[in-house]
């Protein structure tokens, strides 16, 4: 990985505090990862001791944070340009890019090793794949080259429920694949809604997000198409029998809400609706996977352990 | 930033690191008990 240290202002080393390292892990993203991984863990058949279940969740959360820290280190040059990201510790220089990447690599290695030793090596390998995919495929390769960056790169964000499932069972299955597909399909409309709102920032930073390359009209159409695929796909867990009516009702209501917003965005072309769609997409994923966990817990009268 | 402020930040980072390491030691201890099949305390 090439060093980008030369692109930065004089070092302000020594001014970082604990909160800077916490922010480096992108805690908001981490919370979504934990909820989706918990769904994979909960849905998986079989028993796992609560200590090991919490260890698996901790490893997945830390690995997600590690990937974010490496991403922050690598992207510090463009993060300084965009208002949304220019207060990140690596963009302000409170933490150097090299330190952020070293921090991320250390956390990633630790979380993969602990996952392998405490749970199993399939889960550890999938966790390593998740971090490697996010760093090398998304951050280094695709992000600055193609508007399909977040479509393909979204695979990294879709893997946590698969890792959670593998941590319990030691194998793969249809259910985690469906959860993977749901997050994979959710990712593009989620990021494109944000990119519509922040198109000028991305253009200034030279990141070829869809609104920058193909225009807002095409992006709104893409968001609508992906949401139209996502809403029925989110009902697959009910159709395949691994989720019950509670999840089905939540998926139906949230899917209808997301579709209405995507259709409104396509029609009224407002920045305000783009931001509302972005915010709703976060509620959508939290709600969907939260309902999945709740539904499973209710069906067995408690947690799987 | 004053020297005192820098010292305070360094101290808070040291404390955070100590907490993380202690938490890690406790986690490894619990994992070992579970793996050995010993009832956790």
Structural class estimated from helices and strands of chain A:
mainly alpha
Count of individual domains of chain A: 1
Number of helices of chain A: 16
Q: Mean pLDDT of chain A, as a whole number?
A: 93
Helical segment count of chain B: 1
How many beta-strand elements of chain A? 0
User: What is the chains' assembly state?
Assistant: heterodimer
Domains of chain B, number: 1
CATH topology of chain A, anyone? Answer: Farnesyl Diphosphate Synthase
| Helical/strand content category of chain B | mainly alpha
User: What is the straight-line distance between the termini of chain B?
Assistant: 47 Å
Shape of chain A: globular
Along the chain, the helix and strand elements of chain A come as HHHHHHHHHHHHHHHH
Protein chains sharing the most extensive interface: A-B, 14 and 14 residues
Task: Give the amount of beta strand of chain A, in percent.
Answer: under 5%
Amount of beta strand of chain B = under 5%
Rg of chain A (CA only): 19 Å
The averaged pLDDT of chain B comes out at 90
Shape assignment of chain B: rod-shaped
- Uncertain parts of chain A: 1-11
What does this structure look like?
The complex is a heterodimer of chains A (305) and B (41). Helix content of chain A is 76%, strand content 0%. Chain A has 305 residues and is mainly alpha-helical. In chain A, α10 (174-197) packs antiparallel against α13 (216-233). Mean pLDDT of chain A is 93; it is low at 1-11. Chain B has one helix and no strands. Chain B has one helix at 3-36. Chain B has 41 residues and is an all-alpha fold. Chain B has one domain (1-41). The model of chain B has no long low-confidence stretch (mean pLDDT 90). Chain B starts with a helix and ends in a 5-residue tail after the last helix. Chains A and B meet through α3 and α6 of A and α1 of B.
Sum this structure up briefly:
The complex is a heterodimer of chains A (305) and B (41). With 305 residues, chain A is mainly alpha-helical.
